[in-house]
């Protein structure tokens, strides 16, 4: 179980017991960690990704599938390299942007009362992930550095488009960017 797969898959590729290893990533969790953060039925209805199933023994896979079924998880299959790229885009960048926004707000707002009095639902949900454990996320970002850097560069390009539209007062471009982004509604229902 874990958030990155390509590095470990390469490391265990020629291990004599490689078949006993099933690479799984349960896409579930919160910004909290440790036993006190446990949530009943956390995995129910969430996605679990099994990577490189062809490299795992059939009985190990069957046991893993049964475990995920017991947890009522949905299962997807994909190569480890694809997994790491996809999670960089849908998970890792969310954490990075949340950490970065929190740092930006903390730089500007030295008076904590101002932050709390102005913080509304949108801000709170956007920076929620900034409460995540740094000891958890540091190795995730570093083990998935190449895809993470790719998504950061792509994200910065999009931020620059918003900056240009705002700085030039281009309402049409700004609205167009947001309408394009609204297409995410088709994916996230």
List keywords for this structure.
189 residues, mainly alpha, Rossmann fold, 6-phosphogluconate dehydrogenase C-terminal fold, 2 domains, three-stranded mixed β-sheet
Brief sketch in words of this structure:
The chain is mainly alpha-helical. It is 57% helix and 8% strand.
DSSP strand content: 5-15%
Overall body shape: globular
- In N-to-C order, the SSE pattern is HEEHEHHHHHH
Please state the structural category.
Answer: mainly alpha
What's the CATH topology name of the largest domain? 6-phosphogluconate dehydrogenase C-terminal fold
How many β-strands, per DSSP?
3
* CATH architecture identity of the largest domain: Orthogonal Bundle
């Amino acid at each position: 179980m874990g958030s990155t797969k390509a590095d470990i898959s390469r490391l265990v590729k020629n291990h004599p017991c490689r078949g006993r290893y099933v690479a799984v990533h349960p896409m579930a969790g919160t910004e909290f960690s440790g036993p006190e953060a446990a949530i009943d039925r956390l995995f129910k209805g969430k996605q679990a990704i099994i990577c490189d199933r062809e490299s795992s023994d059939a009985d190990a896979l069957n046991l893993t599938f049964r475990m995920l079924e017991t947890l009522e998880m949905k299962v997807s299959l994909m190569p480890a390299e694809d997994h790491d790229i996809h999670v960089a885009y849908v998970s890792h960048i969310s954490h990075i942007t949340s950490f970065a926004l929190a740092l930006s707000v903390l730089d500007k707002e030295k008076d904590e009362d101002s932050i709390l009095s102005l913080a509304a639902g949108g801000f709170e949900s956007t920076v929620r992930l900034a409460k995540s454990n740094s000891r958890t996320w540091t190795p995730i970002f570093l083990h998935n550095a190449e895809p993470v850097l790719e998504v950061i560069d792509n994200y910065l390009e999009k931020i620059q488009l918003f900056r240009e539209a705002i700085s030039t007062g281009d309402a049409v471009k700004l609205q167009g960017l947001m309408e394009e982004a609204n297409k995410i509604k088709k994916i996230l229902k």
